[in-house]
Amino acid sequence: MKSPASKRDGLTVGVWLQRDLVDRLDSLAERAGITRSKLLANMIEMNVTSLERADSAGILPLVLLMRDLQEGLRGWCRQIEDDPETVKETWANGGYHVAT
C-alpha cells in the first residue's frame, strides 16, 4: 500500500536555512494556519512564477542583479551595526567608493 506522500507528484527538497529565518517562517506559517513546508512551497512557487515572467520580458539578468545588490547592501549594513568604528576608518581612508 502506498503512503500518503507517494500519492502526490513531487519531490522532497532539502534546504539549509539560518535559524532566525526558520523562526520567522514558522511565525508566518502559524499565523497563516499552514505548515512551514506549505508556506515554503507557496513562496517558492510565487517566486519561480515571477522569475519566469521576468525572463519572458527579457529582464531576468536585471532582476538578479538587483537581488545581488540588495544582498550586498544588507551585508554592508550588518557590518556597520557590528563594527561601526572600522567602517568609519575605512571610509576615512578612501576604502569605499561610490560610482557616480
At a glance:
With 100 residues, this protein is mainly α.
Describe this structure in words.
- This protein has 100 residues and is an all-alpha fold.
- Helix content is 67%, strand content 0%.
- It has four helices and no strands.
- Helix 1 (19-32) packs across helix 2 (36-56) and helix 3 (60-82) packs across helix 4 (84-92).
- It is flat.
- The mean pLDDT is 85.
Report the total helices. Answer: 4
As a percent range, the share of helical residues equals 55-70%
The dominant shape is flat
Strand residue content: under 5%
| Main β-sheet description | none
How are the SSEs ordered, and which strands pair?
Layout lengths: L18 H14 L3 H21 L3 H23 L1 H9 L8
Helix pairs in contact: 1-2, 3-4
Feature tags:
single chain; 100 residues; mainly alpha; 4 helices; 67% helix; flat
